[in-house]
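#struct-help
A.M.: can someone run this one for me? Single chain, 125 residues.
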Amino acid sequence: MGFFGFGKKKEQSTPVCSCQCGTNTKPVQQEPQTCSCNGSPITSIQVLGTGCTSCHTLLEHTQQAVSNLGLSVQVEYVQDMVKIASYGVMRTPALMVNEQVVTTGRVLSVADVEAILKKTGNHPQ
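D.P.: on it. Structure tokens below:
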């Protein structure tokens, strides 16, 4: 080892969570760990609504949040009331991420949607 740590060989590390967020890293030769960011990639986002102004606003805010976060997932707008009821949703607008209802009956701001998406699944580095 060199003076003040210079010249010390740094151990190579790589992200180990499925979203590659870099939150958890490990030396290459160690076993994988669980990611603190939940590690599940966001594969689907749906806004459930009846076509009202509030539902369209949530759709727009969700699309903006997805764009801001750099996610490569399309936001689906579901208006089929039978399908909406099958998810157990009785108040619209509603937001679903990876087939899980995360909010109902509220128009979220773009920042609120971003926070939910970061908490719910993967996020870009």
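A.M.: thanks! Residues 41 and 82 are 27 Å apart (CA to CA).
D.P.: also worth noting: The chain is about 25% helix and 20% strand.
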